Amino acid sequence: MSKQSKALLIDITKCIGCQQCSVACKAGHKQPGDPEPTLSATAFTVIEPRGEKFVRRLCMHCEDPSCASVCPVGAIVKTAQGAVRYDGSKCIGCRYCMIACPFSVPKYEWSKLAPYVTKCDMCAERVLAGKQTLCAEACPTGATTFGDREDLLMEAHKRIVENPGTYVPRIYGEKEVGGTSVFYISDVPFEQLGFIEPPMNQPMPTLSAAALGEVPTVVTIGGSLLAGLYWFTQRRREVALAQVAEQDEKERN
Ligand code: SF4
Ligand code: SF4
Ligand code: SF4
């Protein structure tokens, strides 16, 4: 396998909701239980039913990740292989990454005495060893494929062009938040499938860092940046509420 940056392509038209990706991911990461409905500390990927469609959720492995930009100790890094990786040995538990992620991906091991942040690592050890990700290997329909980022982008464009009227003319992840290493193509508009609509196609770190009071001092704030900051603040509020609900749920059980 080449040493270029890797990625995943998820073709929503091909997903049958069989959950084999979730099962393989859990088994490979020694996580207990059956596939879960939402991302959690024990589920790095989930399948969300949306009408007649199934949408896989996982870390988007952003090209310029907000989670990494706000981490004060460098515990999250974007690697050359494409994966955004988390190093628990450096983590101080501030959970800024959870607030900063526009996709609400990182979760926290609330039930553990020494908790870590958790998320998909794009099967980094396997990929470094020249293998594909467990989820791509397990998918029986080719709805999830793994490969070089540039090749997968070309493949996504090719499927859209060669199947007129099938796909919406958009590759989600090509431009959103400055680009990601997980791409989606679909026959249903993404906004109908619960995908977030970032305010602009630029990396979020500048916005998130400013919103968190980290760096830098923004002297001139244009209209688009203000819109982005407003959007980011709203997202942060939603994430905080979701976290409280998640914690309440865990305490009840
Ligand atoms: S989706 Fe969230 S957790 Fe994943 S790389 Fe992007 S900002 Fe980080
Ligand atoms: S890339 Fe690996 S860690 Fe991420 S969802 Fe797929 S199997 Fe799980
Ligand atoms: S294994 Fe493939 S077809 Fe099955 S739910 Fe996952 S992505 Fe969809």
Architecture in CATH? 2-Layer Sandwich
Gyration radius (Cα, Å) is: 18 Å
The geometry reads as: globular
| Strand ordering within the main sheet | 8-1-9
Bound heterogens, unique? iron/sulfur cluster
| Unreliable runs | 213-237
Question: What does this protein look like?
Answer:
The structure is a single chain. With 253 residues, this protein is α+β, with helices and mostly antiparallel strands. It has 8 helices and 9 strands. It has a 3-stranded mixed beta sheet with strand order 8-1-9. Strands 2-3 form a two-stranded antiparallel sheet. Strands 4-5 form a two-stranded antiparallel sheet. Strand 6 and strand 7 form a beta hairpin. The chain is globular. About 10% of the residues have low confidence. It binds iron/sulfur cluster (SF4) (3 copies). One iron/sulfur cluster (SF4) binds next to helix 1 and strand 3. The site of one iron/sulfur cluster (SF4) has 15 residues, from helix 1 and strand 3.
